Amino acid sequence: MVKDDIVGKTTAPTVSGSLRTQLDWSAYEGGGFGDSFGDPFGGFGMPAATASPGADNGYLRAAALCQGKGQCQRKDGAGVMCPSFRATDDPLHSTRGRAAALRELLEMESGAGEGIDFASPRVAEAMALCLGCKGCKRECPNGVDMALLRTEFLAQRAARLGVPRRDRLFAGIARQARGRALLRAIVALRNRLPLLAGWTERLFGIARDRSLPLPAARPFTPAASAAASDGREVLLLVDSFNRGFEPEVAQAALEVLQAAGYAVRVLAPAADDAEPRRSLCCGRSLLSYGLVEEARAEARRMMAALAPAIATGTPVIGLEPSCLYMLKDEYFSLGLGEAVGRLTPQVFLLEEFLASEQAAGRLKLALKPLPGPAALVHGHCHQKAQGGMEAVQAVLGLIPGFEFRLAEAGCCGMAGSFGLEAEHAALSRRIGEAALLPAVRAVAPGAPVLADGFSCRHQIRDGAGRRAEHVALLLRRALA
């Protein structure tokens, strides 16, 4: 049983006839609500929202984008959304069901000054199994962004009830730098000793039969020669996961870019940063748990560090899809100013950058054949939702004679820490077993299994016993 200890309880925003949101929903203001709204149980009788347009209606309008068309409740396996519905067959656990529950809550605002009941168990249940895959934003006909709607709900709920201790732990562990050696020793011991794993489940609600990612003995530190090239300058954004857990991925990306003739500079905190020795973090893990203000603080550090690159138009290259795409998506909702819009066109995943350079005739990357059985490629949900898989295929196609196929699978089921949570571990496996894990087991021995997502690699290792790797590592092996 999860011990739901609460830490860091905050003062609730003022709620009296109107809602002060923690994210910026102004992009949704002024639009129509539609004529009807499909509830999650098949009826279409819920009336359209009647609240008058205003600065506090953006959140309700965003929820009201769902018109009950039911694309999220498909069972044909196509697309990304909605992984939890596919696994449970429960309409409440679909984008449509969550939107209905949330909209009902927002429309029932109390007239007695008590405000909206963000402690609602029903809405909490609806939101609990949202994996934040972002599939709905791309695949829903109306572009409902349920991951962002859930973030606001969690933020409002945390303001009233506080933040569970496990959420606080998972939200901050990727950024943790101090005490790395001790943390690594504790995680290694916990992964080996069932009694200790059982203790962490009782204390924190971390599934005892799940391994925890092991921090690297030494985090990524760029070599002094990182910018030793006369070519076009690029900026490498090393996220918290690849910096602290798999630094070999960041090193491989740096070497591939240098081999292609680019002058690589690793993004570092701004000169006037209040904590210049602390690594940058996009804030993704914080935002996933509704810790909006903390995520916004990290995002401001990131934007300050990126300011010179924005001014010069220098390409910014990232490795972890969930982190990189946050700069192109959620940063708009954090209210960081117009600089986010200027940054977006110059932010790329590694494969996106290489593919764009190849298409422009500028890429000079000599690659050798990699013989062996065909590789399996699994795309991170955010890669699929943002249309990034075409670039992955284009770059792999540059390796002479390299054979690969895409895994016909949606979400892997890990979704950050979702698969590590005791109450969700079984569902996480069920989602993985729907398509991905059987496909991995069917791959020939010695064939590469490729996955850019840190969580995806974790799920594949835990569920199929195979080591998946980032495309950057494969490209480094293919360097001529």
TrEMBL record:
Query: What InterPro entries does this protein map onto?
Result: 4Fe4S_Fe-S-bd (IPR017896), 4Fe4S_Fe_S_CS (IPR017900), Cys_rich_dom (IPR004017)
Q: Which GO terms describe its molecular function?
A: 4 iron, 4 sulfur cluster binding; metal ion binding; oxidoreductase activity
Q: Which UniProt keywords apply?
A: 4Fe-4S, Iron, Iron-sulfur, Metal-binding, Repeat
Give start and end of each 4Fe-4S ferredoxin-type domain. Answer: 66-144
- Keyword Iron recorded: yes
Span of domain Cysteine-rich: 275-328
Sorted alphabetically, which PANTHER family does this protein's record hold?
ANAEROBIC GLYCEROL-3-PHOSPHATE DEHYDROGENASE SUBUNIT C, GLYCOLATE OXIDASE IRON-SULFUR SUBUNIT
> This chain belongs to which protein, by name?
Uncharacterized protein
Source organism per entry reads Azoarcus indigens
